[in-house]
Amino acid sequence: MEIKSADLALSGLTKTYGHSLAVDNVTVRIGTGEMVALLGPSGCGKTTTLRMIAGLIEPSGGDILIGGRSIVNVPVHKRNIGMLFQSYALFPHLSVGQNVAFGLEMRGVRKAEAARRVTDALTLVQLDHLAERLPTALSGGQQQRVALARALVIEPSVMLLDEPLGALDKSLRESMQVELRQLQQRLGITTVIVTHDQEEALTLADRIVIMRAGKLEQIGTPQEIYSRPVSRFVAGFIGASNFLRGHVAGSDGGTTLVALQGGARVTVPTQAGASGEVMVALRPEAIQVQPFAGQNDAAPNTTQATIEQIIYRGSLTHLYLRLDDGAPLLAFHQNRAGERAPAELSPGGRVVARWTEENNHLVADR
Amino acid sequence: MTTDTAPSLALPQAGARRPLGRARSGGALMVLPALIFLVVFFIVPVAILFSYSVLTQPQNGVIGLPLTLSHYGHLLDTPLYLHVLAITLRISLWTAGLSVLLGYPVALTIVRGTPLVGRIVTIILVAPLVVSIVVRTYGWQLVLANNHSGVANWVLSFLGFGPAVLRVMYTETAVVVGSLHVFLPMMVLPLASSLARINPSLEEAARTLGAPAWRVFARVTFPLSIPGLIAGLTIVFSLTAASYVTPAILGGNYAQMLGNLLEQQVVSVYDWPLSSAIAVVMVVLTFVVNGLSVFLLERRLKTRRRLSEAR
Predict the structure, then answer these.
(1) Cis preceding-peptide flag for B66 (omega within 30 of 0)
(2) pLDDT at A272
(3) Do B199 and A89 make contact, defined as CB atoms within 8 angstroms?
(4) Are residues B44 and B103 both part of a single domain?
(5) Cystine design at A138: which of A106, A142, B77, B220 (Cβ 3.0–4.6 Å)?
(6) How far is B302 from chain A (nearest CA, A)?
(7) Cα A149 off chain centre by
(8) Which of A217, A204, A190 is nearest to A8 (CA)?
(9) Which residues, in sequence order, are CB contacts of A90 under 8 Å at separation 6+?
(10) What's the CATH code of the domain at B221?
């Protein structure tokens, strides 16, 4: 299957319902063949954005361009968009083959060619042997693959996925994510996926768009979003994070020194203009935890703490620590081959938590 | 006649999955009261009715043996009776057919409109049910009256169409209009419930796949609403075929239906065996027509599938 994909641009896209802004001035450029995830909590406007691209919701303002051409005045059925729904949305009265053929039928494709393309599309998702079945006879994963074939067979300019794997159980979802990603890359099709599952976004997307209350919060590659979140919201939404409050106590060439409320000090690779009250984000897996050996260590990026709780999570052990000023600190200990955390760490024990400077990252407190 | 809705229940409905095991044990016990009621007040009377239709009523009026089919023969031999049968069929089919045409837009509005619009339309639709059918039918008589005092004629002459141009009172058309008013909710409500069961993303998927609105309706909405359509058709046809008040008031002597004929035979002629034969014919008629419509609609679905699979 050859798909001529196109780039997609949202320009100042806005949707208002009465006085409330569901989508507020969203501008994103999505390159040809790129896969972008719209990620955010429910009500953040990600689904509304997707449905505006599909044409199922009319924008209140802004523009949508596919291949440089505005499509806001093009009706849904002429947009040539492939869409996957969380509920699969397979036609229950039509067989699998007829479902896949639907878009071709609407385009008046000749029967022989349609039959060939339906078989190709079903082969692509490894379901060509089930063409005669009714969708209800298929498992959830199979149904979504049929929906995928049905969307791909029309060779859409853009694919839109609305929480496509949300109804599947975890292990199936993960294998489908890998399959979906491989297919998307092989076909080189421009894709937008809406999800509230951060792992899904990390697995699938070239870039992630974090949305919050209708606005763009951050756009970036998964690595950028994870390692350099702009705000407390982003850092908390993608992975777990500790947030340390303090104020700038000085800086030299490469680093800014932040004095935390509890007395400890951390150094942050310099970000221009940091001063006053700041918030430092620190990923739990960056923290090394060792039993307290007796001598105070005044070095930065080090603090004493008490273990409150230890939770074994298979590959990781979560250590819930409490600093002396009452602030919580979460640390992940990497378990080797599923071993438990070191025996000398136990609830109530005094420990020293250490991490390195490059793991500290200033975020906006919002 | 309410039992005539039964065929619609036999239809496989998308998404209507039964919780396994639960219905099995308690089910039989749960339907028992209704079953007893039906046997005592429906099955037994129908059996008596049927037996009357094949028994003899001599001069003294006491119905008894010998068994005979002469009443049915009489019914099918007499041109007047056949005429009434034809009128009954015609009126019922027109009413059922028109109620589909009127019903789909209303049902779609109820299901797809904003909640407020849906509720208002439902109230407008159902409110007349509160008023007695006799009152409503006399209302239609006032509206449709053939002389200048009829509301419809008054409006038409006001609009310049000339005095008393509309002459529908005491015709089959008047009976169809009256029946449509009375029975339209019976079409709209099952249709609406069937339409409401259709997952909206099915229609959205069809649109994204390139279907304009009318093809979405033809290929997705309509086929998936057939269970409701069959239920509505069955109910409207059966109730219309069995109606008595509407044809009596709006049809007069020119659009008599089987129900009116039956009443005459019972009250005026006192011919119980012939009346029973008429009643049996009414029951058979509704069963046959309903069975036929269910059969045709289901076959339409299946051939459609077979056709599309063949290519």
Answers:
(1) yes
(2) 64
(3) yes
(4) no
(5) A142
(6) 9
(7) 24
(8) A190
(9) A96, A99, A135, A143, A146, A147, A150, B205
(10) 1.10.3720.10
